[in-house]
Specification:
The chain is an alpha/beta fold and 383 residues long. The protein has 18 helices and 5 strands. The model has no long low-confidence stretch (mean pLDDT 91). Bound molecules: zinc ion.
């Protein structure tokens, strides 16, 4: 991964390059930021830059043997720990058993969410975790090598041996404590790159041992430019994706590759609000089946769409046109709808959409979640 392949994030790239030019490379970093902001691509661009044989001031060369191996995630001194599900029937018992899938998914799109990974390895309905044995190894199964072993057995030419721990918040406490021990006794020329969406789930002792790299959402301009290039989109469609993606490339990618999802969400959202206002429970119940059939990815995107519509209509209600983002059909619907989103119910709407999103992410029953949400909206819209 080259720095120039990472979308936006210029100030983070500058900060990382400066650790090299000022000779201040730490032994452990914690890349933290929201989904789709580019934590993994940035961490890998940094690791590649540190090991490049002919780096320029701003980027890796992309041509040397080290760069070529890093680009394919195949460098012998680049190691990964990530959440997975042990499956003895398929002989999948450690991260290394999933390495090919990991490389393949990354090659398709380096912006990976936990859900994309779950789907890719066929464990949608299970919670992947980082097992204790990934940190410490397992004496009864020599194939499972712990971190120390992985970092010491290889003796290749890399300037830095790199251990990437993706979704570090998925470590259980025992595992986290073992990692902590390792971080407390750093080896020279070994680099730990931990990646997390939420530092609140990390042990404070681990956080204190790492240099935190905060990664913000991708700025709209950089995101728009990338979507335009990647998907040949422009105009209203491009604007709508960028606004709905909210700095999250994974979200933007999904919208750009799914069949006119934003207009499907618009249709659902407007019907949901109309039926809620008229208390048409029969129609709402039918909508539950419709939403259930969309699948979890689209359900999540739809809920995010609902949150954005509530925000926009509230802003219109507050009469602040300068920060209002709606496309033509949303604007037309909002003409009559915006008075219904007001100080009395706006936080209730946000709470309900957020709560539904929370439960969908955690594999809750979509029919129950959406029926409950529709009923609450029916009450909220009249307040
Ligand atoms: Zn290079």
């Amino acid at each position: 991964m080259l720095f120039r392949e990472v979308i936006g994030q210029e100030s983070v790239k500058k900060e990382l390059r400066e650790t090299v030019s000022l000779n201040r490379v730490a032994h452990a970093y914690m890349f933290t930021g929201p989904e789709g902001s580019g934590k993994l691509p940035l961490a890998l661009a940094y690791a590649q830059y540190l090991n490049c044989e002919h780096p320029t001031e701003t980027d890796s060369c992309g041509e040397c043997p080290s760069c070529k191996a890093f680009a394919k995630l195949q460098h012998p001194d680049l190691h990964f720990v990530f959440p997975f599900v042990k499956d003895k029937t398929r002989d999948k018992i450690c991260c290394d058993d999933y390495l090919q899938e990991w490389r393949d998914l990354f090659a398709q799109n380096p912006y990976i969410s936990l859900e994309m990974w779950q789907t890719y390895i066929g464990v949608e309905n299970k919670q992947p975790i980082i097992y204790e044995s990934e940190a410490a190894g397992d004496e009864s199964a020599p194939r499972i090598k712990g971190i120390i072993k992985k970092l010491t057995i290889s003796n290749f030419s890399a300037k830095y041996k790199v251990m990437v721990i993706w979704m570090a918040e998925k470590m259980n406490e025992t595992c986290a404590n073992k990692i902590l021990k390792i971080l407390e006794e750093p080896n020279p020329n070994t680099l730990f790159l931990l990646i997390t969406e939420d530092t609140r789930y990390m042990l404070p002792t681990i956080l204190s041992r790492t240099q935190i790299v905060r990664i913000p959402k991708i700025d709209d301009e950089s995101l728009a430019q990338r979507i335009r290039e990647d998907f040949m989109l422009d105009g209203d469609e491009l604007q709508s994706i960028v606004k709905n993606a909210n700095g999250n490339y994974i979200q933007a990618f999904k919208m750009a590759t799914s069949d006119n999802a934003p207009s499907q969400y618009f249709d659902l959202f407007t019907r949901m609000m109309r039926c809620a206002w008229t208390k048409d429970v029969v129609a709402l119940n039918a909508m539950v089946d419709e939403v259930d059939a969309m699948g979890r990815e689209k359900q999540k995107s739809f809920l995010q769409y609902c949150m954005r519509q509530v925000r926009e209509n509230f802003i219109r209600n507050q009469n602040i046109p300068s920060i209002l983002y709606m496309d033509k059909q949303e604007h037309a619907f909002s003409e009559k709808f915006h008075p219904f989103i007001n100080e009395r119910n706006v936080s209730g709407f946000c709470r309900e959409f957020n709560s539904a999103h929370f439960h969908i992410v955690r594999n809750g029953n979509a029919k129950i979640i959406f029926f409950d949400m529709f009923m609450k909206i029916t009450a909220l819209i009249r307040s």
